[in-house]
Amino acid sequence: MMKLWKRASGALKDRKSLFSISFSRKTSFRNPDLDSAIIHATSHDDSTVDYHNAHRVYKWIRSSPANLKPLVYALSSRVNRTRSWIVALKALMLVHGVLCCKVTSLQEIRRLPFDLSDFSDGHSRPSKTWGFNAFIRAYFSFLDQYSFFLSDQIRRRHKKPQVDSVNQELERIQKLQSLLHMLLQIRPMADNMKKTLILEAMDCVVIEIFDVYGRICSAIANLLIKIHPAAGKAEAVMALKIVKKATSQGEDLALYFEFCKEFGVSNAHEIPKFVGIPEEDIEAIEKVISGVEEKEETKEEEKEVEEEKGIILVERPEFQTIITDKWEVFEDDYCFTCNEIIETDQHRKYNVDPSPLPLVVIDEPVYFTHTLPDLITF
Q1: pTM beyond 0.85
Q2: What is the dihedral of CA 195, 197, 199, 202, to 10 degrees?
Q3: Residues 340, 331: Cα–Cα separation, whole Å
Q4: Which of 28, 48, 182, 262 is the most core-located residue (most Cβ within 10 A)?
Q5: Could you give the 3-state DSSP secondary structure of residue 330?
């Protein structure tokens, strides 16, 4: 009885919102048709997702940059007023689909236009909704950071074309690894969360994981050939840290997909085989680091020798005449040399294999063969 009352109350709220929109006029910040599609796509019904109206929203975003402001206004107004985990989650799924459009105008969004970092459902007791609240907070945290990252990538692509430095590529991989870590925090943790809407959201998350992890693997494989003996120590150290984290995240991914399979997420039924990075590839980077350190030590030793030599040549005692039975020997006749100094070979060669790193062994690249769920594909 209580469940039926909640559904009826939610449906009444949606109708009220649609009725008020019917009196709105189209402006640069309002588009009644777009507002209506957003309300339908973020309804209070937890049993279904309105894909038709979700695709209408995506079509507007792809058609013109002018539709971005009405979208931001309508979504923020809708989310900021709601206390329903259903509406909040559907809004996040809709935003996820919008970000997957990857149109140029998205660079203007930067961070999400609303804040669900402290969301709490107001229609049920916390003992029943804590799992949904945690799920929404984690999903929001990822999308907020992903929106910022995507905006930066779009801005970079549309600036004057330039080749990124090794350091910039390393930083980009680190950001992707941070996004992957946030994705792995999105999971249902309460026993009452096996619902259609949660499973739909998890399908979106799993596909995003495939995409992000695939980009990380590809970026590391392409970058490893640039980490050679001529590279700087800071870059080599950062590369080693990234490679080790990729290995750790591969293990976390395997556990995550096992969990998703048991929970019933359809896109996780075929779990890929995540294999750790071979030790020889990690050792190759460590050799680069040790090689750079040896070069630095050699340069430091040579500097110290030069300084000592300078001291010997400069700090002579006052000239004195030494009287012998045969001849006079002046101190100028003494030869001050450094013949005993052993020169260090500065042209060491390192046995480093620059071949791409075999990060993931999958029969077929999962992140290329899977298709996105209906909610976030076009």
Answers
A1: no
A2: -140
A3: 21
A4: 182
A5: strand
